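Input (structure):
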């Protein structure tokens, strides 16, 4: 399977951006240190999604960062990306795994311990858990408590990332929870300096893991 580092999982949002500006911000995020990238496009046609995925994949490969396609297994297979991510209303993890094969990355969004265990048993390689805070993206936000996040981390042996409204000012709530990393969208996509924001968030994510290892 493709190896991946979930420390700073960057999720895209092209809302209101030209393709040129969008791709510039993607490259800035990768240059700043994003360790994993997900292309998330809810409102594009299949052809548009594939077109953009090819361009983002080309950038990601230059940085040796795996590209995960949100929701659309067909787009991931068409472009040859490293993985796909499915939510609770998307294709079941078991079917996504069957279609993607054993070597590609399959991630899943979960909000409960039961969902997390089911996703793991069906072949998920990592989980995104949240939303920890309300978000400004076009995704329905159902808040997840940090206690539930902690319980999910304890319930499955695969990496668990926190997601939902996370930015440089509010990560302290995750201290002591054995997450593998953080997922961010607006904190990079809407930043005046996406490269610096990615760099700073990577450092903060690593600090969370260092505190955990040091028992703080």
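Output (sequence):
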């Amino acid at each position: 399977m493709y190896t991946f580092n979930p420390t700073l999982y960057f999720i895209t949002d092209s809302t209101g951006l030209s393709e040129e500006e969008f791709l510039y911000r993607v490259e800035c995020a990768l240059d700043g240190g994003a360790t994993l990238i997900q292309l998330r496009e809810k409102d594009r046609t299949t052809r548009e999604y594939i077109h953009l995925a090819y361009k983002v994949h080309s950038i990601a490969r230059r940085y040796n960062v795996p590209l995960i396609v949100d929701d659309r297994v067909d787009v991931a297979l068409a472009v040859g990306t490293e993985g796909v991510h499915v939510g609770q209303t998307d294709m079941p993890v078991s079917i996504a795994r069957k279609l993607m094969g054993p070597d590609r990355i399959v991630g899943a969004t979960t909000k409960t311990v039961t969902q997390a265990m089911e996703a793991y048993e069906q072949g998920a390689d990592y989980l995104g858990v949240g939303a920890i805070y309300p978000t400004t993206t076009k995704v329905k936000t159902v808040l997840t408590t940090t206690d539930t996040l902690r319980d999910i981390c304890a319930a499955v042996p695969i990496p668990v990332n926190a997601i939902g409204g996370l930015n440089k000012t509010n990560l302290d709530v995750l201290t002591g929870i054995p997450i593998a990393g953080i997922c961010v969208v607006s904190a990079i996509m809407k930043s005046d300096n996406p490269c610096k924001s990615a760099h700073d968030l990577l450092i903060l994510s690593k600090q969370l893991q260092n505190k955990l290892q040091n028992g703080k």
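Notes: The radius of gyration is 16 Å. The beta strands are 8-11, 36-39, 67-70, 83-86, 105-110, 126-129, 160-162, 181-184.
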